[in-house]
Amino acid sequence: MAELGAHTVKSFDDDIHRLRSLVTQMGGLCEAQIAAAIDALVDRDPDAAMAVVNTDARIDALDAEAEQLAVTMIALRAPLANDLREVISALKISAVLERIGDYAKNIAKRASTLTTSGPIEPVVIIPQMSRVVIEMMRDALDAFVDRDAEKAVAVCQRDADVDDFYNSLFRSLLTFMMENPQHITPSAHLLFIAKNLERIGDHATNVAEMVYFAATGEHFAGRPKNDDTAYAV
């Protein structure tokens, strides 16, 4: 990657710094939103869940700002090679982070709904799964800041762990619902929450793949995928 400060036009360096700052702010907010949504689920706190829902607008606003800045940079600066890859990657990453924020909001909405039903045992898997997902996001964003292709690859390889959590929870909840029909509705909400976390893991991997491309100019291949719930009976 071209080093910051190496450009003849200092304002381009300023724009790159600002764009990267917007992306990292979005990432930090997304991490906080996921953690807060899971805490609201575990604590059965509807007010905390709705606070997550209401905060999503901040992520949307940052995404819009990052998109506008990236498009302006491309139009006015006409970046090439490494610089163009960085701007395009940041633009795509911001869009992915906005989607992750939506998933966190969806988790919070379901967490609020679940406060009206009794607790069910398989919920204990959700916090463990969320911790792995948040760590993947944090590492992907650290790789973005550091332009670290190796760290990006490590994030991609952890996606299989998230799939394993999802597969385990899917089977546990399926059994739980068959044993007691009264658990069907809360179990379905938990399945959607788990699926949202699984999708966040996929998106964290997408971010890592974009970082890898920005750093190396090559596309990452060979992401493992272990979600086999489509074949579960």
As for the CATH topology, it is Methane Monooxygenase Hydroxylase, Chain G, domain 1
If you compute it from the alpha carbons, what radius of gyration comes out, rounded to the nearest whole angstrom?
A: 19 Å
What is the count of DSSP helices, taking H or I runs of 4+ residues?
6
Name of the CATH superfamily: Phosphate transport system protein phou homolog 2, domain 2
Overall mean confidence score, pLDDT: 88
Structural class: mainly alpha
What is the CATH C-level name? Mainly Alpha
**CATH-defined architecture:** Up-down Bundle
Give a short account of the largest sheet. none
Tell me the domain tally.
Answer: 1
What is the subunit arrangement here? single chain
Outline the low-pLDDT stretches. 1-5
Percent of residues in beta strands = under 5%
Order of helices and strands: HHHHHH
Count of individual beta strands:
0
Cα shape = elongated
Helix content: over 70%
Beginning-to-end CA distance, first to last residue: 49 Å
